[in-house]
Amino acid sequence: MNSTIHDPSVSAVDITRITASGAMQTADLVATEEPLEIMMAWQQDGSTIHKNISVTMRTPGNDTSLAAGFLFTEAIIKNAPDIKEITSFPFNFNKILVVLHEGIAPNLQ
To answer: How far is it, in rounded angstroms, from Cα 65 to Cα 62?
Structure first.
């Protein structure tokens, strides 16, 4: 097994494999699942509103697309151009901030 895998979506885990000839210690690759906190920011009455929207479990990777798709499918935003930017936090890869364009308010109902 290649122990230099740097893919955040998989982890090497020690396992005991049982075969007809006996038990053998080895490693296997398993999918990684971590929480992703989706936060939003938008302008309202001249102030910037920040709100935690959701925590969802995901396999790390493509977090910006996941956040945008989540907000769209939950009808929190109407379409992709509502989003001004999506930013990951440099020291917390399990948190993402979606900033809406001025004049766009999320549907939090």
So the answer is: 5
One-letter amino acid identity for 84? K
Query: Which residues have C-beta within 8 Å of that of residue 10, sequence separation ≥ 6?
Result: 29, 30, 31, 32
Strands of the chain (E only): list them: 10-19, 22-31, 34-44, 47-58, 83-89, 92-100
In angstroms, the CA 6 to CA 24 distance is: 25
pLDDT digits (tens, 9 = 90+) for 55-75: 999 998 899 999 999 999 999
pTM higher than 0.85: no
| Gap between the Cα atoms of 70 and 106, Å rounded | 13
- Token code pair at residue 7: 């893919």
